[in-house]
């Protein structure tokens, strides 16, 4: 596995770099404008990093975690603390600011906790703020590299469930744009299977309201030569009914130890329909997406700006498609009960049913 991971890591380095670290700032691909415009923005302050996450200039659970990790490094560069104690206070404030940007993707909180804990560990060994800064920069880079390797491992495990000629139904964008580093999570098996010589196609629902499918997944897969068909979200039932789908593969923003999966709104619809039509439904995520503490009723499902539903994003910017002041309910994630999930594919292996037991086994928690 290790030899294959390293070989594929070089072969599959992304053409599109949604997140780049430039030593003292982040360079981010503004995903609100894709596929119509490729515009990069710079984030040099904690406030700018927080804005980039909150406004979905960068989005996707792993990408949000990586961005926040570098946001902690930027905090020290921006505030220039004169002592270790002051540095830890700066980092605690940055952690609190970044934690308020979006509530559902657990990778954000996992990355912030990991960076802060690293800072505390480093502060116990040095009085030098510069050494602390270097340690944190190395930790953020490690998170970035670990994510890419995790995606390749997920891809290798997931490719085992793909036959030559298969069509995969996905949702939203759980590709390299959503992880910031490489081949994505739900799309990783597609890239690996293709690299290993299998012909695999994708059906991508547009994924209203933010259109991650129509604007990001289609863009990314076509750039990488993957046969892709765009459908309206309302067509997911018919494509399964007509046997046009062999397997469903989706990403995740938070997976609980009992197997509940929080992911883009519409995932539950696909999961229930796949269960009805006897189609395997796989969730792909790094173990940094597994929340070992929360209960399903404790997880906040993000609700966003009503105008996201009232408009569609076009090459001319958002255009209203309804009455401008119509009341809107805009939850951007839903929760899929474990019974609808065939398996959860991570970089550490695949958890099949019963998920509540096999997830613990995967994480060595039994
Ligand atoms: C591998 S990305 C996981 C997850 O993040 C996306 O949400 P958003 O675009 O709102 O950040 C989507 O739910 C993906 O499945």
From TrEMBL:
Coiled coil residues, start to end: 126-153
Enzyme Commission (EC) number: 5.3.1.23
Marked site: Transition state stabilizer: 172
Protein name: Putative methylthioribose-1-phosphate isomerase
Enzyme kind, highest EC tier: isomerase
InterPro entries in the record: IF-2B-related, IF-M1Pi, IF_2B-like_C, Initiation_fac_2B_a/b/d, M1Pi_N, NagB/RpiA_transferase-like
Family: Belongs to the EIF-2B alpha/beta/delta subunits family. MtnA subfamily.
Binding site for substrate: 59-61, 102, 212, 263-264
Pfam families: IF-2B
Keywords: Amino-acid biosynthesis, Coiled coil, Initiation factor, Isomerase, Methionine biosynthesis, Protein biosynthesis
Its biological purpose: Catalyzes the interconversion of methylthioribose-1-phosphate (MTR-1-P) into methylthioribulose-1-phosphate (MTRu-1-P).
GO biological process: L-methionine salvage from methylthioadenosine
Annotated PANTHER family: METHYLTHIORIBOSE-1-PHOSPHATE ISOMERASE (PTHR43475)
Gene Ontology MF, one: translation initiation factor activity
Lineage: Archaea, Thermoproteota, Thermoprotei, Thermoproteales, Thermoproteaceae
Catalysed reaction equations from the record: 5-(methylsulfanyl)-alpha-D-ribose 1-phosphate = 5-(methylsulfanyl)-D-ribulose 1-phosphate
Entry superkingdom: Archaea
Annotated catalytic residues: 253
